[in-house]
Design a protein that fits this description.
CATH superfamily: MetI-like
Shape: flat
Number of strands: 3
Largest sheet: 3 strands, antiparallel
Number of domains: 1
Distance between the termini: 45 Å
Structural class: mainly alpha
Strand order of the largest sheet: 1-2-3
CATH topology: MetI-like fold
Mean pLDDT: 81
Strand content: under 5%
Number of helices: 18
CATH architecture: Orthogonal Bundle
Radius of gyration: 28 Å
Order of helices and strands: HEEEHHHHHHHHHHHHHHHHH
Length: 339
């Protein structure tokens, strides 16, 4: 380093005791003065435009999500819609005792957990793999075309999805007709309880994998390309770059979606399952949502249904909080960051 460069460097570094701004406030005489946090009124006035933009969404959330929670009081009553909530007798925890003592409830819990675990292993990783595959396609036009085709079933209703699978894999579907034409025995996947788990997982993959691909492609686009260049300069091949650059870049999104998936694990698709419940039987398809519908609402036992639904909600909340705490232990922000 030359004498001129040394002089410029020394003059650029403030001497001890001088004033220097930093992230925590101003430093004077070697001591930092913390920046005073803005008050609520100041922040509301500063972010007035953003607050006004979010008010309609907050209103919808309050009306359709939080206000209906007040109806959970019927879980502690012998509720009758003819007399209303104020005049229905209070029974305490009797409805919860009935739910926990019902073998049908535990069958629904078992089926729900089995379906969730199976789809977590065989469905959750597929959008990640497809996103990595699509990201490796060099032609933007081809990538957009394939992505649009894969994403299209997301807009189909479950009625249409089940109908398509019925036309393909049903007793009179294309697969059965092809087997009969070859002299083989036809198969009806749609009414077989033994293959029901594979059936509903296949339906979920066909319908919703495209949405997950978009999420992970957005996360891939946020990864700094200089990291790939630096890894290539260091001699890392394609697989090493994916392992050491791509997957760590996706880790935050993967953990966030995994937490949300765990929170929604007790809701494995009410409409999808109720459409196929009669075909395969309740033994294979009964989950918590269909149990609440048939045992509570359809039979008019509103308090019983509310108690079962409240148990499900409390367990789902515990799963979200536990998974979020685990994400914090691994250094990720999760659904919300620690204060």
């Amino acid at each position: 380093m030359t004498t001129t460069e040394s002089t410029l460097t020394a003059s650029a570094v403030p001497a001890q005791g001088s004033y220097r701004a930093d992230a925590g406030g101003t430093r004077q005489g070697g001591q930092s003065t913390p920046r005073k946090k803005a008050g609520v009124r100041t922040r509301l006035r500063r972010d007035k435009s953003l607050v006004l933009m979010t008010l309609p969404a907050i209103a919808l959330l309050m009306v359709f999500a939080y206000v209906p929670m007040l109806g959970n009081i019927v879980a502690f009553q012998d509720y009758s819609p003819f007399v209303g909530i104020p005049d229905s007798p209070f029974v305490g925890l009797d409805n919860f005792t009935r739910v926990l003592g019902d073998p049908g409830f535990w069958l629904a819990v078992k089926n729900t957990l089995v379906i969730t675990a199976f789809q977590l292993v065989f469905f959750f990783p597929i959008p990640i793999v497809l996103a990595l595959l699509f990201n490796s396609i060099l032609s933007p036009a081809l990538r957009s075309t394939i992505q649009a085709i894969v994403y299209l079933p997301h807009f189909f209703s479950w009625v249409l999805v089940v109908s398509v699978f019925q036309q393909v894999f049903g007793g009179a579907g294309l697969v059965s007709q092809g087997l009969r034409a070859q002299g083989w025995q036809a198969m009806d996947v749609m009414t077989n309880p033994d293959t029901f788990l594979f059936l509903i997982t296949s339906q979920a993959i066909w319908k919703d994998a495209g949405w997950g691909i978009i999420v992970f492609l957005a996360a891939l686009s946020a990864i700094d390309q200089e990291q790939y260049e630096a890894a290539a300069v260091d001699g890392a091949n394609r697989w090493r770059r994916m392992w050491h650059v791509t997957l760590p870049g996706l880790r935050g999104v993967v953990i966030l979606l995994l937490i949300l998936r765990l929170g929604d694990s007790l809701s494995v698709g009410f409409e999808q399952l109720i459409l196929q419940r009669d075909a395969v039987g309740a033994e294979a398809s009964e989950v918590l949502d269909t149990f609440v519908y048939y045992s509570g609402i359809q039979n008019g036992d509103w308090s019983y249904a509310a108690a079962a639904g409240l148990i499900k909600g409390v367990v789902s909340l515990a799963l979200i909080l536990g998974a979020n705490k685990l994400a914090h232990l691994f250094g990720e922000s999760g659904v919300y960051s620690k204060s």
